[in-house]
Amino acid sequence: MNAAKVLDAKGLACPMPIVKTKKAINELESGQVLEIHTTDKGAKNDLTAWAKSGGHNLLKHEEDNDVLKFWIQKG
């Protein structure tokens, strides 16, 4: 998947992955994709709910070893 920006939030605990995701997505144009890498296990629920409430589209998420990867399209 072609992301306009990659956010490295590995090693950060809640709520920092969401805070950094919000800041990063504000720098994108509508329709662009943000790729997020985090090790915070709570991010799966947090980012899913955050994307939905913000009008963004969670395109995909996967787990690569201990790193959770998310692709969110800006609404």
From TrEMBL:
Residues annotated as domain UPF0033:
7-31
Q: Which UniProt keywords apply?
A: Transferase
N-terminal signal peptide: none
Please name the GO terms that the record assigns under molecular function: transferase activity
| Keyword match Cytoplasm | no
| PROSITE patterns registered for this protein in UniProt | UPF0033
InterPro entries (alphabetical):
TusA-like, TusA-like_sf
Family designation: Belongs to the sulfur carrier protein TusA family.
Protein's UniProt name: Sulfurtransferase TusA family protein
